[in-house]
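Supplementary Note 3. Input sequence used for the single-chain structure prediction.
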Amino acid sequence: MSANGINSISEFLLHAGTEYQVFDLGRRLEPTDSQTFLEIENGSAYAPYPRQQHAWFGIVFWNKNASTQHYIWFVKLPLDEQGLVVAAARNHFLEIIVDALGQSVAEDTENAQTLPDNPYSFVPNQSQLAQFNALVKRTLNQPLSEEAQKVEAYIQAPQLVDWQQISMQSVADFVQSLSHHPKQDGLTEAIETNISLYSQVFLNTLMEMSESVSLPENLLAAYLIEIDKSDDINLAALRGTSEGTFNPTINNKLLELLKSEKSQRLDILSVIAARHFEQMEPLLLSAFLEQAANVDEKEGHKGALFAGFFSDLVQVPKLRRQVLTLLHSKANPQILSNAFQQLFAQARK
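The predicted structure, written as discrete structure tokens, is reproduced below.
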């Protein structure tokens, strides 16, 4: 690497004459400024939204002088126990790039799009890809899909528009544009008013596409009602009410949910851990891990499921101290104490 004088992905992209924008694709979808990305990849800053012991990024790059085409790398970098990027893995990815492309990415952007198979590339699922595309368009001031107008029409008059003509991408584009929309108040009021008239498929898509967007209070309240309106828990509503900051109303809702037996399901706990970490003050964190211990015991996972949630949450920089404090607390309920003892026993093996 140093022979080429290139020691980071950021440096490679600059050296190659491209302009680029990085997006975090971990627990939330957020644009990441280039300085922060450089610090994360160099291991001098924690990955803020780690997931499954990795930092996940979408890197959009383009050469303004050559064409208007944008290219994307989806890169996941493994993290150490503290939540810092493993330098050897980052360097290995860099070697792969340099071997495949030399330093000619600016002239040869076609090849830059198709990197050779490597352990660091990933393909986002359909839902994440739609949200990512919408966020990229908004961040880079590109036009949103014209279909987003169909979404607007359906939201205002569901009985007059065929929801089956609406794509997931256009819903994601609509949600991204909502906070800047000149008719934002009227549209959120229309959603509130018409929510029971929407097709369940459309409503679930709308809520899911909202999971990395800050919602106005009235819309958030409408989504919160949808979480357990029926006998089942609506996972799309649970995802859609994810917020980037602490919100007492969401925190209360999650506490209430975790006290019910309905939440004793792996899929529900997974969504809460992935999307609602911002709400995890000590009480909610304890209630969550207690429920994870319940599910582990009920389903006979022998501590593996609980250990998975524990290691996932302890890597989130905002939660690390809290999780470790809880681990050593003498005031934990019995089932949580047992789960932690099992964790210690496994670590000693």
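The chain has a mean pLDDT of 92. Residues 282-298 form the longest helix (17 residues).
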